[in-house]
Design a protein that fits this description.
This protein is of the alpha/beta class. The protein has two domains: 164 residues, Rossmann fold (3-Layer(aba) Sandwich); 167 residues, Dehydroquinate synthase-like - alpha domain (Dehydroquinate synthase-like, alpha domain), CATH 1.20.1090. It contains 14 helices and eleven strands. The strands form three sheets. A seven-stranded mixed sheet has the order 1-2-9-6-5-3-4. Helix 7 packs parallel to helix 11.
C-alpha cells in the first residue's frame, strides 16, 4: 500500500508521487499538443523500468525510445551528440517532449539534451533510483561531465514536471540504495536535525514508511532550491560533503588502480571529512562529530586512501564548480541541522581530516 503523498510545488513545476504522477502526466499530455514524444533511457532502465512505465501512458502521440549505455562514463558530450542526431533523424521539432526515465545520469544528461536541442524543448523527469529521486530530479540542474570532471558543462533549466514513483526502487541494487541514502542523510545534516535522527538506527526504520522519508528529503531540497534557484546563496548548503566528495569521486573514476565509487559512497566520505573540518572550526561539537562519523561509517564501507592519493584529490578541488576567484569554498555544518556557507579551508586542515578519517 503506497501512502497518499501530496504534490510538492517546485519553482514553476510540480513534483508528483506514485499513482498521482501518472494522472498528472496523462492530463498534461492531453492539454499540451506535442508533435512527438521521446523517452530517453539507459540500458538498465530500458529493460527494467520502461515496461512498467509505458502501460501508464495514455496518448496518441508517436512515442520513440532512445537508449544509451548505462553508467557515469557515458555522461558526456559525445552521448549528447548521438542523441541530438537521433532526435533530428526521427523528426524531433520545437514541439517535441522528452521524458527522461532513469537515474541521475539519465536525468542530468536527458535534461541537458532537451534544454539545448532546438534551443530547448520541454522535458519531464521520471527518476528511477533513490539518488535521482532525492537529488537529481529537484532543482533544474542538467549537465554532463567533461573528461573526469563532474557536471562541468550544463544548464539550470526546470522540467515541466517530475514524477517520483517508488515502485521503480524494486529494481535498484542495495549498494545503489545506500548511495541515494547519502543525499537523504545530507538533507538532515544541513537542514533538519529530527530528520537526521530518524536514520541513526537504520535497523529500526520501517521500510513501509520509506516513501515518507523520501518525500521529506525532496521537500527539504526543494525548500532550499526555491529560496535560491541559481546558487548565489543558501543553495550552496546542498554542497555539503560534495566539495571533497566530488574530488574523491573524480579521482577514483579516472584512476585505473581504484574501484570506481558510487556517488553516495564518495559523498559519505566527503561528509565525514567536512564534518571534521566543521569540528576543527568549532562549528559542531565533538559529540556531534562522533555521531556523524559513527553513523556514516556503519552504513558505508571504509574507503582506503594511500598517501599518494591525497595530493591529486586536492588538485581536483581546483576545478570544483563552486570555486570563486580561485579559492575553494566549503559549505560546513554549524550544528546538526544548520549550515554555514562560503567557508575557506586550508590544505593542512583537509590533510588532517583525511588522517582522522583513516583512524
Amino acid at each position: 500500500m503506497t501512502q497518499h503523498l501530496n504534490v510538492i510545488q517546485a519553482n514553476n513545476y510540480p513534483i508528483y508521487f506514485n499513482e498521482n504522477g501518472y494522472e498528472g502526466l496523462n492530463l498534461y499530455l492531453k492539454e499540451n499538443n506535442y508533435s512527438k514524444l521521446f523517452i530517453i533511457v539507459d540500458t538498465h532502465t530500458n529493460e527494467y523500468c520502461l515496461p512498467v512505465f509505458l502501460p501508464y501512458l495514455e496518448t496518441n502521440v508517436t512515442i520513440e525510445i532512445i537508449e544509451f549505455e548505462a553508467g557515469e562514463a557515458n555522461k558526456n558530450i559525445e552521448t549528447c551528440v548521438q542523441i541530438w542526431k537521433v532526435l533530428t533523424d526521427l523528426g524531433g521539432d520545437r514541439k517535441t517532449l522528452v521524458i527522461n526515465l532513469g537515474g541521475g545520469v539519465v536525468t542530468d544528461l536527458g535534461g541537458f539534451v532537451a534544454s539545448t536541442f532546438k534551443r530547448g524543448v520541454d522535458f519531464i523527469h521520471v527518476p528511477t533510483t533513490l539518488l535521482s529521486m532525492v537529488d537529481a530530479s529537484v532543482g533544474g540542474k542538467n549537465g554532463v561531465d567533461l573528461g573526469n570532471l563532474k557536471n562541468q558543462i550544463g544548464v539550470i533549466n526546470v522540467p515541466k514536471m517530475v514524477l517520483i514513483d517508488t515502485q521503480y526502487l524494486a529494481t535498484v541494487p542495495q549498494n545503489e540504495m545506500r548511495s541515494g541514502l547519502a543525499e537523504m542523510l545530507k538533507h538532515g545534516l544541513i537542514y533538519d536535525k529530527p530528520y537526521w535522527e530518524q536514520f541513526l538506527d537504520l535497523k529500526a526504520i520501517d521500510f513501509a514508511d520509506f516513501d515518507a522519508l523520501i518525500y521529506r528529503s525532496v521537500e527539504i531540497k526543494n525548500e532550499i532550491v526555491t529560496q535560491d534557484p541559481t546558487e548565489k546563496n543558501i543553495r550552496k548548503a546542498l554542497n555539503f560533503g560534495h566539495t571533497l566528495g566530488h574530488a574523491i569521486e573524480s579521482y577514483f573514476l579516472e584512476n585505473e588502480s581504484k574501484t570506481t565509487l558510487l556517488h553516495g559512497e564518495a559523498i559519505a566520505v566527503g561528509m565525514i571529512l567536512e564534518s571534521y573540518i566543521s569540528l576543527d572550526k568549532k562549528l559542531i561539537s565533538l559529540a556531534e562529530y562522533s555521531q556523524i562519523k559513527t553513523t556514516l561509517k556503519a552504513i558505508y564501507d571504509d574507503i582506503v586512501f594511500e598517501d599518494k592519493d591525497i595530493e591529486p584529490i586536492l588538485e581536483l578541488l581546483i576545478h570544483d564548480k563552486k570555486n570563486e576567484y580561485g579559492t575553494i569554498q566549503f559549505a560546513l555544518i554549524q550544528g546538526i541541522g544548520s549550515i554555514k556557507i562560503n567557508q575557506l579551508v586550508e590544505n593542512e586542515l583537509i590533510l588532517e581530516a583525511f588522517e582522522d578519517y583513516k583512524s
